[in-house]
Amino acid sequence: MVAKHGKLTNLKKNPDGWESYDSALEREYMVELERDPAVKSWTKKHGIKISYSFFGFTRHYLPDFLIEYQDGSKELHETKGLPLLLWASTKLKGESAEEFCKTQGWKYKKITKGSLAFYSKID
């Protein structure tokens, strides 16, 4: 069984060569990013903090991954499993992240376990 928290090392596409993970889903997705030939580099230590409003209070959201592809495009990815996908805060974070990405010329995607592929990338 995979630990929910830990560190992956010897990463080729991560600028530091290692990365911490906060869930089994994150760990598995990090392995997938390493295997994906379209991915040039990826990191969780990107420093991006996105503000969003939750019941009138300003909150801050740090997306899981910043990915740069071989073609130069960039995306923010958030790994989420059930029931977190259904939470109101998850929806608000996603909407704010999408707006942020539009200003950067990037895309935002939620990543969850998929049944047809290793992971399903949800636009």
Summarize, please.
This protein is an alpha+beta fold and 123 residues long. Helices cover 24% and strands 37% of the residues. A 5-stranded mixed beta sheet has the order 3-6-7-8-9.
Structural class: alpha+beta
Low-confidence stretches: 115-123
Shape: globular
Largest sheet: 5 strands, mixed
InterPro entries: TnsA_N
Protein name: TnsA endonuclease N-terminal domain-containing protein
Domain TnsA endonuclease N-terminal: 36-112
Q: Keyphrases for this structure?
A:
single chain; 123 residues; alpha+beta; five-stranded mixed sheet; two-stranded antiparallel sheet; 2 helices; 9 strands; globular; disordered C terminus; TnsA endonuclease N-terminal domain-containing protein
Written overview of the protein:
The termini are far apart. This protein has helices at 24-35, 88-104, and strands at residues 6-9, 18-21, 39-43, 50-54, 57-61, 65-69, 74-79, 107-113, 119-122. The chain is of the alpha+beta class and 123 residues long. The strands form three sheets. A five-stranded mixed beta sheet has the order 3-6-7-8-9. Strands 1-2 form a two-stranded antiparallel ribbon. Strands 4-5 form a two-stranded antiparallel sheet. It has a domain at 40-122. The protein is built from two helices and nine strands. The chain is 24% helix and 37% strand.
